[in-house]
Amino acid sequence: MAKQIILGVTASIAIYKACDLIGRLKDQNIATTVVMTREAEELIRPIVFQSLSGNKVYRGLFDLPEAWEIEHVALAEKADLILIAPATANIIAKIASGICDDLLTCIVAATKAPVLIAPAMNENMYQNKITQDNIRKLKSLGFKFIEPRKGRLACGKAGVGCLAEVEEIVRQVKNNF
Question: What is the CATH number of domain 3-175?
Answer without folding.
Answer: 3.40.50.1950
